[in-house]
């Protein structure tokens, strides 16, 4: 299984990354703002999600670097404006002149660091700037962070299900939703804990290790054993050496054309021999054929890598295959054969990984495609983007459901730790500039428990939102390798019970006293009076 990890710069290959990438109603609202003089009002929006995906408790926040790239290039070309002129048919020519000037130079973005663990109702991004601009940005921002966060979280859950020592390979290019979806999945599954990808362009663009084995079509394209009779390595016949071991081990009834395919592949890739063993019969042909070619490679001075299982009961077949490898390794005194990598694919998902763990198996690496890159268990995260302040005046979206109410005003986000506790206790949403005391008890309000008041003594606070964009980058863009490291460190630093895949412990999200008071005050002020109580 050949692997490459050469970095080719920190670049984005997003398709359609331009100012026209928004929903039509954003443009119609922008026109209305412009005509009513509100387009330059100072608006503050925030992006958050209401429920963690996959029935879990956490999400890995991703996509911020793509948002920053988008902001850097946010503008409309003349062709875009001409298209809008023909399509929208707005009458005021001054609006089209204004469209020529739009950019993100007056936009400021606060965000939680990409690759961090985040939780429901906590703003992951706070976006402020001219109202028409930050409203326009809603659609592209949500597009860029929703799927990125979802697939990174999916990958992290699969990593946890597989265990820390197993290699995980992203095999989703052919099943992803188009080339853009594939590249997003490649990037952010790597951030979430996968080790490599089959996507060659993804490896080129982002420096992610590239891996690959062989296809069934390759194996079936060979029609005889003799097609590999000229195979030689280091002046010796790989073909004859393989046949010697075939006779010695009594594997003479295996499929000849499959053996020919393996010999040819090993001939041209002697240090990267990785077979696909289930084309005909895994245990009666595929694994035995792999073994005799591998013994020949060892004798000629090379080291085979492994083989892939792609069908059947993967747990049982992997155990039987490993036992066969060990028996032959001992009998032929070739210890390296017993350590051959056994890889598995075949529609693997989180549940399958957990089941394999319970049953016991001998699989070293997993190739996962469809269920990873399409997030088949939950195909959308549901991140939303809501106005919380206009011209310094806090605003909220009112709802009869507490889950759908927004919290008003500009905010700061803190992660709180209690005395003598290793893991974070909660995230606190505060009013901008509000100071939370750490020298005594403070009253907080539990977002997930109908705003129940609790008194806690906080030992340490970490502010987790920071300026990421202020008309320009606030710091250099981070590589996917940096994001991967952060995600791994974040996962290691959290209470394992919160990260449990089956019955996660609820992680607390709290409102500060001032934020709660503001929320209640504006909720009461904005609440619609019950019309049934009005006497006509």
For this entry, give a set of tags.
38% helix, 18 helices, 536 residues, disordered N terminus, six-stranded antiparallel sheet, alpha/beta, disordered C terminus, six-stranded parallel sheet
Task: Describe this structure as you would to a colleague.
This protein has 536 residues and is of the alpha/beta class. It is built from 18 helices and 22 strands. It has helices at 24-35, 64-72, 78-88, 93-99, 131-136, 138-162, 178-191, 200-206, 216-221, 238-249, 256-268, 282-299, 314-332, 335-338, 350-359, 370-373, 480-493, 513-526, and strands at 42-48, 59-60, 108-112, 117-118, 125-130, 167-170, 196-197, 232-233, 236-237, 274-276, 306-309, 341-344, 365-368, 384-390, 393-394, 411-417, 426-431, 441-446, 452-457, 460-463, 465-470, 508-511. The strands form 5 sheets. It has a 6-stranded antiparallel beta sheet with strand order 15-14-1-5-3-21. The protein has a 6-stranded parallel beta sheet with strand order 7-6-13-12-11-10. It has a 6-stranded mixed beta sheet with strand order 19-18-22-17-16-20. Strand 18 and strand 19 (452-457) form a beta hairpin.
């Amino acid at each position: 299984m050949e692997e490459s990890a050469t970095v080719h710069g920190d670049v984005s290959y997003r398709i359609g990354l331009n100012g026209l990438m928004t929903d039509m109603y954003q443009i119609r609202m922008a026109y209305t703002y412009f005509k009513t003089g509100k387009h330059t009002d100072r608006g503050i929006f925030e992006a958050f999600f209401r429920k963690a995906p996959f029935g879990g408790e956490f999400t890995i926040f991703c996509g911020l670097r793509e948002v920053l790239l988008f902001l850097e290039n946010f503008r409309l070309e003349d062709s875009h404006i001409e298209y809008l002129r023909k399509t929208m048919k707005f009458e005021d020519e001054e609006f089209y002149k204004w469209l020529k000037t739009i950019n993100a130079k007056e936009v400021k973005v606060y965000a939680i660091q990409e690759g961090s663990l985040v939780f429901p109702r906590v703003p992951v991004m706070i976006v402020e700037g001219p109202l028409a601009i930050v409203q326009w940005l809603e659609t592209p921002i949500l597009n860029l962070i929703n799927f990125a966060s979802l697939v990174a979280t999916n990958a992290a859950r699969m990593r946890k299900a597989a265990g820390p020592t197993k290699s995980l390979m992203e095999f989703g290019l052919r099943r992803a939703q188009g080339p853009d979806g594939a590249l997003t999945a490649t990037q952010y599954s790597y951030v979430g804990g996968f080790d490599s990808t089959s996507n060659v362009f993804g490896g080129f663009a982002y420096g992610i290790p590239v891996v690959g084995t062989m296809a069934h079509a390759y194996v079936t394209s060979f029609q005889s054993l003799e097609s590999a009779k000229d195979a030689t390595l280091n002046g010796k016949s790989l073909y004859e050496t393989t046949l010697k071991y075939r006779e010695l081990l009594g594997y003479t009834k295996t499929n000849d054309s499959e053996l020919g395919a393996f010999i040819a592949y090993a001939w041209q890739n002697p240090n990267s021999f990785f077979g696909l063993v289930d084309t005909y019969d895994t245990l009666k042909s595929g694994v035995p054929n792999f073994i005799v070619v591998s013994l020949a490679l060892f004798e000629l001075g090379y080291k085979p890598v492994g083989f892939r299982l792609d069908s059947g009961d993967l747990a049982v077949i992997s155990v039987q295959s490993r036992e066969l490898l060990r028996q032959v390794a001992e009998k032929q005194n070739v210890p390296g054969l017993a350590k051959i990598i056994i890889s598995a694919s075949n529609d693997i998902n989180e549940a399958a990984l957990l089941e394999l763990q319970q049953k016991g198996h001998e699989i070293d690496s997993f190739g996962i495609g469809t269920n990873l890159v399409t997030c088949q268990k939950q195909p959308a995260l549901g991140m939303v983007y809501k106005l919380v302040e206009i011209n310094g005046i806090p605003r909220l979206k009112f709802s009869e459901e507490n889950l759908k109410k927004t919290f008003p005003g500009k905010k700061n986000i803190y992660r709180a730790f209690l005395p003598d506790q290793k893991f974070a206790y909660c995230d606190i949403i505060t009013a901008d500039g509000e100071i939370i005391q750490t020298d005594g008890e403070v009253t907080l309000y539990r977002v997930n428990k109908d705003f129940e008041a609790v008194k806690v003594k906080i030992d340490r606070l970490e502010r987790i939102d920071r300026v990421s964009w202020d008309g320009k980058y606030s710091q250099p863009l981070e590589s996917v390798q940096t994001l991967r490291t952060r995600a791994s460190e974040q996962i290691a630093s959290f209470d394992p019970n919160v990260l449990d895949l089956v019955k996660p412990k609820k992680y607390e999200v709290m409102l500060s006293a001032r934020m709660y008071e503001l929320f209640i005050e504006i909720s009461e002020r904005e609440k619609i009076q019950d019309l049934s109580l009005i006497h006509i």
